[in-house]
Design brief:
The complex is a heterodimer of chains A (110) and B (110). Chain A has no helices and eleven strands. Chain A is an all-beta fold. In chain B, strand 5 and strand 6 form a beta hairpin. The relative contact order of chain B is 0.34. Chains A and B meet through strand 5 and strand 10 of A and strand 4, strand 5, strand 9 and strand 10 of B.
Chain lengths: 110, 110
Amino acid sequence: SQQGEEDPQALSIQEGENATMNCSYKTSINNLQWYRQNSGRGLVHLILIRSNEREKHSGRLRVTLDTSKKSSSLLITASRAADTASYFCATDTGGFKTIFGAGTRLFVKA
Amino acid sequence: DSGVTQTPKHLITATGQRVTLRCSPRSGDLSVYWYQQSLDQGLQFLIQYYNGEERAKGNILERFSAQQFPDLHSELNLSSLELGDSALYFCASSGHYGYTFGSGTRLTVV
């Protein structure tokens, strides 16, 4: 199975609500990254959190990392229709490849 | 423009054929990664090159091969194409910030 697994697989919310996506992984990591992908487009890097960090913010994004539980969460506050996309977590285990999860599909209804 | 350039954007070809996908990494990035994304799937890591040398291999079929040239651009060669090879193929380059993805090549095998 994937190193990084997102949960839920799909999420539908109303504009203005908060969206929370979770990522679990199996092995120790150097860092964890979150990416957004609009339909059929390339992935856009959102935020990177290192293994010695617990929380990071970027605009309306808040990422937490719990290395003891091997999990991370991405919170998008005050969601907008434009946030509709797939969100992927990716783990860097120190090898030469970063492993991506299958993603969470977020639908924000106007 | 992410700085990672992929060509062509779309490719339609018949089964049994061979195609070459091209990627130019972000200026200054030495690593190039190739990923395959099938419909509604996460990204599957194929292969990574660093400064012209293969560094890591993922789930890359024997019918697929890649190389990175002295000017750091990379090519992914797909041969004996099958219908199941239809997918988005992304290339990414990396720095300390995470990955930067190209906009992808959509391959359709008919």
